[in-house]
Each structure stands twice: as structure tokens, then as C-alpha cells.
Sequence to fold (138 residues):
Amino acid sequence: MFRTVTSPIHSYRVINGNTVRVELDLGYHIRITVMLRLTEIVAPGMTGRERNAGEVAARALERWLNQQEADNLEAISRGLDEHGRSVGDIRGFVHCFSAMASVRMRNQGYAVPRGDEPHDWTREELAAIESKEGPTDD
Fold:
């Protein structure tokens, strides 16, 4: 059984709408870089017919991360998926309020809940994401 671990994020790079490369601060001047897949959501891919929507979703995630208070991003690691990738979430803080990246992406329409099967994006879903300018402030 994996125990949930929370670590401050030293730096990050958005890979796509549901994956972020994060450098975690483990304390005692120890840092580790992991690919963190946001749990419970699926965003469009960065290739093929999903590419345009995937780029919009990735930019939305990056904008949201950039809007958070600089030293207050935390990675919440929940374990590994069936492929050995780290899964979890990112908690951001603005004006003493916290928000989770996966919830934000889903609520803003850039991602859908993760199901048991891969998500087959419809043309309408991709067009709706492509038409978005970015997340609105809460």
C-alpha cells in the first residue's frame, strides 16, 4: 500500500494537459525530478487529431500553475499507475485558498474524468477545448 506524500515543488514544466515534470524538494537539500500524471483526469494528447486541443489544455494548465503563489505549489503523490508512472495532483494557493490542478482542469472543461478505458475524444469535445482562451479566475 502506498502512502500519500506531499512535497513542495521547486520547479515544473508542463508536458501536456495532465502531465507535469516536477522537481520536488524532499528537504535537507535533496531534490528529485519526476513526471507527475494528474490523477483522475484525461486531457487531449499532443499528437494527431487531438494536438490542437492538447496544446490549448497544456497552456491552460501552465497558466494556472503560473498564477499560483510562487513558493506555495505542492505535489501530492498518490503512488504509481499500472505503467510505473507517478500519479497525484498539484495543490496551488492563491490568497490563502487552495485548489487542485486536476479539479481545475476538469471544471474548466480542459479534461474529462479518467475512466477504465482510454477516452475516445469526439470532434465536438476537441472543438470545445480548442475554442477556449484559458481558465477564468475563481
User: Anything to note?
Assistant: The beta strands are 5-16, 19-27, 30-38, 41-42, 74-80, 86-94, 97-100, 112-113. The longest strand covers residues 5-16. Residues 51-67 form the longest helix (17 residues).
